[in-house]
Amino acid sequence: MRERTIPVRSTRLVGGEFFLAFMSLAVILQFPGNTFLALGLPILALLWNGIQRHYLPRPWVGGVAVAWLAVSSVAALFALAKFDVLLDRNYFLLFVSLLVTALVLTMGQNRPVVASLARWIYISFLLLTIIGVAEVLTGFKLVFIRYPDTTVWWWVANYRWITTAVYANYNDFSVAIAVFALFLLARMLLAPKAVPTQLLRGLSVLTIAVWILAMGSRGALLGLVVGAAVLLFIAARARDSRAFPPWLIVTGASLSLLGATVLAQSSYIQDGDTAARFRIISRIWSLLSEDPAKALTGFGSPEVLQKLAENRLENQLVNPHNMLVEALLWGGFPALTGLLILWALVVWFSLTNRIEKNWYAMASAAFTVAMPVFGLAPSVFLHYLYPQLIMLVAACSVSPRRPAAEARDGDREPTMPR
User: Fold this and answer.
1) How many CA atoms lie within 13 A of 256 on its CB side?
2) Fewer CB near the terminus (10 Å): N or C of the chain?
């Protein structure tokens, strides 16, 4: 029987990769008009690539991501119609942007496109970190130009090492560079190079961790620690599927949960800032209770939420400071449920050694597992779109075959793309 050959990668994919690369730069570096760039560029990528035949096995988890974003888009559209808002950053446009991106990643020969997007996310974080370092060295802070009314003005002005780069808050910036450190650690472990390069990578990760600690972003630092632990676990399981037997996983998870519970009751965590976050959740819940329909559609846009806070809550703070609450604001319980399902799938396939054996897949999976921790630090998290983009990379990087099936194909060691 004649064996079917997989066609060589089409040159047309270069255009699609370019559009997604520029989108990642626009989103992470906060270009002016990045919302419309995030919407328009994936559409151009989809039109350029076209709807292609699936020559390569496609993980069905990517299809779950598409379904989640499609349902969430419908929910956000109802909110858009209800509140009659078509603003610069309404949630419907953001969901459509992510939906089209997911379609680009899951159609045709998706692996080169997924790899390209992951690499450009990494490059974008690198450029963001360079901007932050330049601000610390020069003392010139972009936040005074981009966000002159920022609430962290005093801190940034009086402490040279506290900076925000292109973001409005040092917590938001700290989370971004923590994600970069996680990706850098993945390259160090899974795409090793010469010793000087490896030393530079390791020193950079440690420097970023100390920098985050100096800026006082506990959530970002905790997210980096959790993400690094997950990355080490996934990498060890990829090299030897017998590493970390089930009893050890259960014991480790139980002890970690116990330790997190004890730490959460300590004065280091339970301070005024933490209490304020619980009050924010209570305020948002009161707004949902007044109009249960919002629980199914979300609020349509940040401006709608802010106006409700001004009219009914005496202009009290309602920025969610919580990834799950933020998903609820975006598209109600449909969006929250879909996010949790996709997150649980990535967690499950990470635990069962079904993530592809390359640095960007494992880094994306580790970040996705640690997303709830990262999402506790900034006032808004999903707002920046890069968490969802990395989550899509992780969903599209699930291996379509079980490790046992791969082992039957031979004992050749998998190569780690650099």
Assistant:
1) 11
2) N
**Within the chain, how many helices (H) and strands (E) appear?**
18, 0
Question: Which stretch of DSSP H or E encloses residue 132?
Answer: helix 110-138
What the block records as the tokens of 220 is 């970002």
Query: CA 93 to CA 387: how far, in whole Å?
Result: 16
CA 418 – CA 398 distance, rounded (Å): 19
CA nearest neighbour of 73 among 368, 338, 389: 338
Per-residue model confidence as pLDDT tens for the chain (418 residues): 443 433 434 434 456 788 999 999 999 999 998 988 999 999 998 888 765 544 444 568 888 999 999 999 999 998 887 776 665 578 999 999 999 999 998 875 567 889 999 999 999 999 999 999 999 999 999 999 998 888 888 899 899 999 999 999 999 999 999 999 999 999 999 988 889 999 999 999 999 999 999 998 888 998 999 999 999 999 888 887 776 776 676 677 667 666 665 555 555 554 556 667 778 888 888 888 888 888 899 888 888 888 888 777 776 777 888 899 999 999 999 999 999 999 999 999 998 888 998 999 999 999 999 999 898 888 889 999 999 999 999 999 988 666 555 544 444 444 444 4
CA angle in degrees (0–180, nearest 5) for 411-413-417: 150
**Pair of tokens at residue 7:** 């066609």
* Beta carbons within 8 Å of 99's beta carbon, 6+ residues apart: 66, 69, 70, 73
> Could you tell me the CA-to-CA distances from 29 to 89, 176, 224, 367 in Å, in that order?
16, 10, 20, 19
Tracing tokens 């151009």 back to the chain, one arrives at 44
Q: d(Cα 120, Cα 196) in Å, to the nearest integer?
A: 23
The tokens for 385 are: 């779109």
Which residues 6+ apart lie within 8 Å of 112 measured at CB? 9, 13, 17
Q: Are 141 and 164 in contact (CB under 8 A)?
A: yes
- Residue 266 near residue 222 (C-beta atoms within 8 A): no
Helix H or strand E encompassing 182: helix 170-190
The Cα–Cα gap between 118 and 25 comes to 12
Q: How many C-beta atoms lie closer than 10 Å to residue 43's C-beta?
A: 16
